[in-house]
Amino acid sequence: MSDSDIARGHIDPGLFRGLTQARLSRRGALRGIGALGGAAAVSALLAACSIPGTNQTGTADTRINWTQWWAKQSKQGTLNFANWPLYIDQDDNGNSESLKRFTAATGIKVNYKEVIEDVQTFYAKVAPQLRAGESTGYDLVVLTNGWQFTEMIDNGWLAQLDHSQLPNFVANAGRETLFPAFDPGSLHSAVWQSGFTGLAYNEELTGGPITSFEDLLDPRFKGKIGMLDDNIEYGSAALLAIGVEPTKSTPADWKKAVSWLEKLQPSVTKYYDQGYTDALQNGDIWICQAYSGDIFQLNAGGHPEIKYVTPKEGQVVWHDNMAIPITAEHPVDALKMIDFVYRPEIAALIADYVNYVSPVPAAKDVILNDLGDPDVANSPLVFPTPEMLAKTYDYYVFKDYADFTNWNDIFNPIVQS
């Protein structure tokens, strides 16, 4: 992360998620599960919604005929895969059943590296290589949507995916993963896992349920409120609080959202980069903006008094996305991995370990009936209900760097004052 990022107060939210609460190990012996047939026919949905072909885009890679590009590629038998720490199923020795099955099914050897700890740092490393047309050393990367990811798409640094080689993705992807605002039509990305940012509260201290952002303005909670120390997160929450969908917001809306945040500010004890889960448990704060995966893990760790809620005004969803750098040496091998993890039985192995929102709804039945883990299968924080999804919105997608800077200039004074 650069000094200018720190000075502006904008730190990558993916880093926060990695620090706030260590993911619980779900390292029990995995029972063998049989292969399942295709789940819901999302392919019909894709056709009905007219997802464009692989040679159509509005970004800098329009000069490439992607049908011809993919026709020239071939399987090489090797995959260099960059991911976040503790973000795939692993046993006590660090071995992954899903990766083992991938190699058995495809013959592709996976060099799996847990080298991404925040998007900004990783982006700063690979951007010069991509700009120069050089290999990054990775064929598949998992990156959170945000300005850097958008810039990679706009610069033409990510290969367009050949959906004809992704039958499991087409058949099994949840609708909310198919049409992200930051990559319409999933042309350049496929969701690895997702999560929500909403509110969490200590029910033993609040004296009742929290249901709305307006509850944060209740004088009873003054000095007992926490927010996340990231302007994308608290800015998005404020937009929802004033009734504006982030993706449809304007700079005028951003200024109105700042007014709401200023009204809330006297009640906020701290803007947290990490440690908010400890503060909720200890009673230092009673209510806090929170990531869904963190609260799932708190509950699983013996803290049922900490509740996650989707505010009535809505919540935002973030996606960690698989993408293939344009300079990848083994792009077909990467494409095969993307498709493989959209098999319900494989998606189930991953979701049962990491406890974030699975992009494959059919994985729920596998976790429930084959892995025998109802706590994960029945959790709306891993398999959200239709009611939750109806109140879930994407983050604002920045048009360019000037747009990104304007957002920072408007929202940063909240944590800097």
Write a structural description.
There is one protein chain. The chain is of the alpha/beta class and 417 residues long. The relative contact order is 0.19. Strands 1, 2, 3, 4, 5, 6, 7, 8, 9 and 10 form a 10-stranded mixed β-sheet that branches. The protein folds into 2 domains: 11-24 and 38-194 and 318-387, 3-Layer(aba) Sandwich (D-Maltodextrin-Binding Protein, domain 2), CATH 3.40.190.10; 198-315 and 397-416, 3-Layer(aba) Sandwich (D-Maltodextrin-Binding Protein, domain 2). The model is unreliable at 1-59 (pLDDT under 50). The two termini are 22 Å apart. Helix content is 40%, strand content 14%. It has 21 helices and 10 strands. Helix 11 crosses helix 12 (251-264) and helix 16 crosses helix 17.
The CATH superfamily of the largest domain bears the name: Periplasmic binding protein-like II
Radius of gyration: 21 Å
Helix/strand structural class? alpha/beta
Helix content: 25-40%
Instruction: Tell me the overall shape.
Output: globular
Multimerization state: single chain
CATH-derived architecture of the largest domain: 3-Layer(aba) Sandwich
What are the low-pLDDT stretches, counting only 5+ consecutive residues below 50? 1-59
Tally of domains: 2
Instruction: Give the end-to-end Cα distance, rounded to a whole number of Å.
Output: 22 Å
Average pLDDT metric: 86
Strand-residue proportion: 5-15%
- How many E strands? 10
CATH topology of the largest domain: D-Maltodextrin-Binding Protein, domain 2
Name of the CATH class of the largest domain: Alpha Beta
Specify the biggest β-sheet. Answer: 10 strands, mixed
Number of helices: 21
